Amino acid sequence: MTASSAYIVMTILLSITIMYKYAAETMKRVKAFSNLYKIGCTRKKIASYIKKEVILFYVLLVLLPIVYLAIVMVQGYMHTPDTLGLIIMLFGVDIIPQMILAVITYYIYKKNVYTEIGEVL
Questions:
Q1: How far apart, in whole angstroms, are the C-alpha atoms of residue 89 and residue 49?
Q2: Diameter of the chain by CA atoms?
Q3: What's the whole-model pTM score?
Q4: Which SS3 state, helix, strand or coil, does residue 80 take?
Q5: Angle 69-102-62 (CA atoms, 0-180°, nearest 5)?
Q6: pLDDT tens track of the chain, all 121 residues?
Q7: CA angle at residue 58 from 29 to 109, to 5 degrees?
Q8: Using alpha carbons only, what angle is made at residue 80 by residues 76 and 81, rounded to the nearest 5 degrees?
Q9: 18: three-class secondary structure by DSSP
Q10: DSSP at 56
Q11: Mapping DSSP to helix (H, G, I), strand (E, B) and coil, where does residue 105 land?
C-alpha cells in the first residue's frame, strides 16, 4: 500500500513538474507565434498549431511509459491474477493527471501567445 501511494504521489508530482517545464519552454516559442500572426496567420490557426503541439507532447508522454507499465503489469497479472484493480489504478494514475495537465498547459500556452499577440496589435 505504501509503495502504491508513493507511486501515485511521485507520478503526480512529476507530471506537474513536466507541465511547468513545458510552460516555461513555451515562453521561448511565443515570439515565433507572434511573428506568424504578424505575417497573416489567424488566431484560430495559431490555436490549432498550439493544440497539435500540446496533444502530441502529452500523447508521447503518456504512451511511452504506458508501454513499459503494460509489460510489467501483464507479468504481474500472470503471476497474481487478483491484481487487476491495482493495474487499472496504476494506468489511471498515469493517464488521468496527464490529461488534466494537458488541458491546463494548452490554456496557459494559448494565453501566453494571445497576450503577446495582443501587444502586437
A1: 33
A2: 63
A3: 0.78
A4: coil
A5: 15
A6: 677 788 888 888 888 898 888 888 888 888 889 898 999 999 899 999 999 999 999 999 888 888 887 887 788 778 777 777 777 887 888 888 889 999 999 999 999 888 888 865 4
A7: 35
A8: 100
A9: helix
A10: H
A11: helix
